[in-house]
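Changelog note: in this version the structure field was regenerated for every chain. One regenerated record is shown below for reference.
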Amino acid sequence: MTFYDGIYPFYPLQRTSFIFSTNLLTIILVFLVLAASFLLILPGIRGKSRFFWMFRILISLFIGVVIVALNFTADWAQASLKANSTYKSFSIAVVDADVGLHVGLYGINITLRGNPVNQLNETIDYNEEFRWTGQLDEQYAEALDRGLPNPILYIAEKFTRNSACGLIYQYRYSGRYASATLWTAFCCWLLANILFSMPVILYAGYMMLATAAFIFFSMASFSTIYNLPQCAFTIGDATFTTAYSHSFWLALATGVLCTLIGVLVVLLDLLVPDRVREVFSVGGDDDEDDQHSDFPHGYFNSSFLERVTIEGGMKKGVTLDPLTISHLVERL
């Protein structure tokens, strides 16, 4: 413990991740590596299918990274305002700052940035995270002990269990079910990519539709936070409420994209199935049988066919023409 720990106004400042968290950055890097790996083998693909293959891989990776990343973004809903508010407890100092509330599936981020940043002989630039996975009441108590600014404490207090607003119950369970349906959508996306590499393109289209459906289910689950009366946040003379933000609309766009891909694949497979299999570079059992049927008839040693059964009888020393021999071999 140092001299400055726990002594006002020298509380240690906690800086937590916001939009580009460590988890989110890791997910983006992993998918970028996958995209680069697929692009490296692109020159080995011949013909016009090279560009279609590249387009299909990039679109598929984009859908996958969006589905996974949406679980870790902190801007499904947000609100912000400019206000003049008291800065910290036991002080009458007032600061001019931008206050922001950013809601994700696993918690909230509360930001406070001064206008200008340097006021009261310190830098006013806070970004505090409160997660549903832990005890938010305990996190709020720690924030009180650390002496965080009043606007941050005021907003965080609205999400505690003792608050009359009851926001913790609305946001926590809606985010939990939205995250569960997003992971289900990711599993459907994996199955769709596996089926796209097999001669069952129709079922791949169905799985893309299932992926879109679960994305829409996650949006519907998160939207339940607005079924109950919203609790207004008042800081100074200004009041604000949350509204849908970037991640919500990105989920909507991705769901629409998956729907279009699924419908297009299903329709094309029903109308021109052979053409679709050719485009996706897959073949069925019929193609394999056709290839075998194109092979010329082989040469047979007639000495092995001296004793063959013709219509249930044994005939010896019968001379058979090549066409008859081929039919007999097929019957055997």
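Spot check on this record: The chain has a mean pLDDT of 77. The CA atoms of residues 66 and 250 lie 8 Å apart.
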